[in-house]
Amino acid sequence: MTVAGAFRENRANGAAYMTAPNIAAAHAFATRLSGADASFPSRSRAYLEPICGALGIAFDDMSFSDQVHGAAVFVAGGTGAARRPEGFDALVSAASGHALAVFTADCAPILLYDPARGAAGAVHAGWRGVAANVAGAAADAMIREFGCAPGDIQAAIGPCISKCCFETDGDVADAMAALFTGGAETDAVVERVGKKYHVDIKAANVLLLERAGLRRENISVSDECTRCLSDKYWSRRASRGGHGLQASIIALTPARL
Hints:
Elements: E1 8-12, E2 15-19, E3 25-30, H1 45-55, E4 62-63, E5 73-75, E6 90-93, E7 99-104, E8 108-114, E9 119-125, H2 127-131, H3 134-146, E10 154-157, E11 167-168, H4 170-180, H5 183-189, E12 190-193, E13 196-199, H6 201-211, E14 219-221, H7 236-239, E15 246-254
Parallel strand pairs: 4-7, 5-6, 10-14
Antiparallel strand pairs: 1-2, 2-3, 3-15, 6-9, 7-15, 8-9, 8-10, 11-13, 12-13
Helix pairs in contact: 4-5
């Protein structure tokens, strides 16, 4: 059973964002109401600074990458160019005051936090990231780099496309079947509907985090679907590939809320 309690909507410093019930570090799953479109890019200082201000962190203390739908993990906390690495879909850090960000529009944003070690992670996990087990790779990096105990790591899977709207062809279903080796796990993630398949990337990421040793009761999952709520979240499906991404940020500072 995943952690009880709903995600909460917050508005502060001109930013609109959601917070998870089980992450004690400052964090935000931003909504499209915070801005960010083709003329106001998601990785720009202008978009991110209001969210950073709401969390009590500085834009220059944040790491993020360009994201390539893979499973490479960047260990963040350095200075200068090291804060903007290329080719990573997960970032982890144990540097006090540092922040990590990923950007999504239907893919799943996952934030990780270990209060015992003061370590955090941020993960971009669409279906290709699920197939590559990027969530597990991020958890493994926290265990390896910072000595985190898997049972201490808290995880929050933020708003993303839900099973109701993630209709796919057989290639995605086949990738999930190969990852979960059939049986009950595959049935929990993939449902055939006529000639198409509906895939639950939230459930898939929960299973992968459990494989990494996290406890189900330490994992919270947003019940919001970015496609269904395309007036609140940017959705590639809703916009048919259009622009717009929302940031998900976690900082190694105490939560304000």
